[in-house]
Design goal:
With about 350 residues, the protein is an alpha/beta fold. The protein has eleven helices and nine strands.
Length: about 350
C-alpha cells in the first residue's frame, strides 16, 4: 500500500503499522521467561535469528535499561503486594485473578505482560476508575467471551488514561473478565522505565508482527486509529475524530476478526490543549508540546488529568471479512472505505454521548 504523504519512516505521528521489522529494544523476548522455566532433560537450543541490517533499524533512541533477573526476595515488592490487596475488594480481586489466568503459568507472556505487575496496576487504576473518573460503561454484550476482536476507539487527553480505563472496565465489568492489549505508538518504546512498565501491563508497540501475534492468539486488541493526532487535538476540536490509519482494517480482514467501535466521552476534557508548540516538540523529540490551563504553568503536575467523568460505549461489531476476502487487505481504496465506515460509526456514538451529557448538565 502506498505510504501517505508526510509520514516518515518511524517518525512521530506516522502510521505505527507501516513498519514491520520488530527490532524494538522495548519488546525483548524477555530472558526471564526462559530462565524461570523448569529445566528439561535436554538443553533447549536457541532458535537462530536472522540479524536485521543496521540500515533497516529505526532510530529508537537510548536502549531500554536492563531488567533485573535476580530471584532474591524484595521486601518492597511484598509491601506493594499488600498495598494492592488493601485496595481491592473481594469481587475485584477475584475478577483480576480470573483475568490473570489468561497469561498461563509463565511470569511473562511472549510480549512482556506480567500477571503480578498487572494485578498491582489494576488495583491502583481501579481507584481512579471508580472514584476519580467515575466511569460508566455499556454495551459489554458486544465483546466476545473468548474469541479475538479489534476494539477501535477515539483518542484524547494527552496521557493514555482512555486506554487504561477501557482495560480496567473489561476486567471489572465484562463477564467473564478479559484482558485487552493496547497498541501504542513506537515513540513510547524510547521512554526509559516507562517502556518496561508499559510492556508489563499489556501495552504493545504497534508493529505488524506484534499485532498479528495477538490476533493469532485470540486476544482482544485495542487500537486508536487516530494515532498521535488524536491526543494533540486543540480544545476547539474536542470530540472531532481525525483521519484514521488503516492497519487495523487490514489485519481484521486477514485474521477474520470483527472490529468493535468504542466511543469514549470524557478523555478530551481531561487536559484541554490551547496550543501545541510543534517546533519545541520536534526539538525535544516529543509528539506534542501542549499549552493547557495548567501546563507548563505548574510544571509536570500540570499534565495530570482533570477529574472528569468518563463514559464508555461499546458498539455493534463490524464484520467486514464476511463481505470482503482477505485479498481486499491489499486494496487501498477498499481498506480506506472500510476505515471510514468505522470512523463514522465511532463519531456518531461520540456525538450521541456528548449530546446526552450536555442534556443532563444543561
Amino acid at each position: 500500500m502506498t505510504r501517505p504523504s508526510g509520514e516518515g519512516r518511524g517518525g512521530l505521528g506516522s502510521d505505527p503499522f507501516l513498519q514491520g521489522d520488530g527490532t524494538l529494544p522495548f519488546l525483548i523476548r524477555l530472558r526471564e521467561r526462559t530462565i524461570r522455566e523448569a529445566p528439561t532433560d535436554e538443553p533447549e537450543q536457541p532458535e537462530p535469528r536472522r540479524p536485521t541490517p543496521v540500515s533497516d533499524m529505526p532510530d529508537l533512541g537510548p536502549p531500554v535499561p536492563e531488567v533485573s533477573l535476580s530471584d532474591e526476595p524484595d521486601p518492597m515488592e511484598g509491601f506493594v503486594d499488600r498495598m494492592a490487596g488493601w485496595l481491592l475488594d473481594p469481587e475485584s480481586e477475584e475478577r483480576i485473578h480470573l483475568a490473570a489466568q489468561q497469561l498461563g503459568a509463565h511470569p511473562y507472556d511472549p510480549l512482556g505482560l506480567s500477571g503480578r505487575v498487572g494485578r498491582r496496576a489494576l488495583a491502583f487504576f481501579r481507584m481512579l476508575y471508580r472514584y476519580y473518573f467515575r466511569v460508566e460503561s455499556s454495551g459489554h454484550e458486544q465483546i466476545p467471551e473468548k474469541k479475538g476482536a479489534i476494539l477501535a476507539a477515539n483518542h484524547g487527553g494527552l496521557l493514555p488514561f482512555d486506554a487504561t480505563m477501557i482495560i480496567v472496565d473489561l476486567v471489572l465489568r465484562l463477564t467473564p473478565p478479559r484482558i485487552v492489549r493496547t497498541i501504542v505508538e513506537r515513540w513510547a518504546g524510547t521512554l526509559p522505565f516507562v517502556n518496561v512498565f508499559f510492556a508489563r501491563v499489556g501495552q504493545v508497540i504497534g508493529t505488524r508482527e506484534n499485532f498479528r501475534e495477538l490476533l493469532r492468539g485470540g486476544q482482544l486488541v485495542l487500537v486508536f486509529p487516530e494515532g498521535i493526532d488524536g491526543i494533540r487535538k486543540r480544545a476547539a476540536e474536542r470530540y472531532v475524530l481525525q483521519r484514521f490509519h488503516l492497519g487495523f482494517v487490514e489485519e481484521s480482514l486477514r485474521h477474520r476478526v470483527p472490529i468493535i467501535p468504542v466511543a469514549i466521552v470524557g478523555a478530551d476534557d481531561q487536559a484541554p490543549i490551547l496550543y501545541d508548540i510543534k517546533s519545541l516538540a520536534r526539538l525535544l523529540g516529543l509528539p506534542v508540546f501542549p499549552i493547557t490551563p495548567t501546563f507548563p504553568l505548574f510544571g509536570p503536575l500540570g499534565l495530570l488529568p482533570y477529574p472528569v467523568k468518563y463514559e464508555i460505549r461499546y458498539g455493534e461489531p463490524l464484520h467486514f471479512y464476511e463481505e470482503y476476502t482477505p485479498e481486499a487487505a491489499t486494496d487501498p481504496h477498499a481498506v480506506r472505505y472500510m476505515a471510514e465506515q468505522v470512523r463514522r460509526r465511532i463519531q456518531e456514538m461520540v456525538d450521541r454521548g456528548v449530546l446526552s451529557r450536555r442534556g443532563r448538565t444543561g
